[in-house]
Amino acid sequence: MTRGPTLPAHRLPHLPTPLDAFNAAPDEEVGALLLHCLCSPRWSRRLADHRPYPDVASLLAAADEAAYDLGRADLTEALAGESLPELPEDTYSAAHTALTAAHAAYEAKFGHVFVIHLDGTPPEERLDRVLEGIYSRLKNDPEDERVMSAEQLRRLAHGRLRDLLRGAGPCPSAAPPGGTNNPHGAAPGR
Q: Which of 23, 139, 167, 189 counts the most CB atoms within 10 A of its CB?
């Protein structure tokens, strides 16, 4: 049996990905997007300046490295951009009171907002996890807590950036610089 000529492989046109858009976007736009992921101009500039990234894993690795390199002033600035998530509407008032009191004690001791990475935590467990985290971390000394907060910020930025690159928009889990928000697994704070 003889066969006819083989047709060339069909190639789909290259469709831009969120990473392609990130790599090609103007510096100001990328900087603004990155500030929504972590309110640190130094971190944002470093990631923007090292574009283009060959893949998402490379960008996320660079984001982690840049977060590890943040100094004390950078961390203070990033912490100032975080906020408490809104509790579900059906949360009883005692929970609001408990969270407010726990956060006030935390902020009085450490002088900054409490942050915790909540990705993967079911919504119905978030309040308990936040309260447990605050009470547990109130036992830390200030230097240990600074290290813990830096790690939580790194994890938050990583998750927000990952969400951004999935096409979820401008890191919806991050507070705008100097603002408040309703994060999904983000940083409790003011």
A: 189
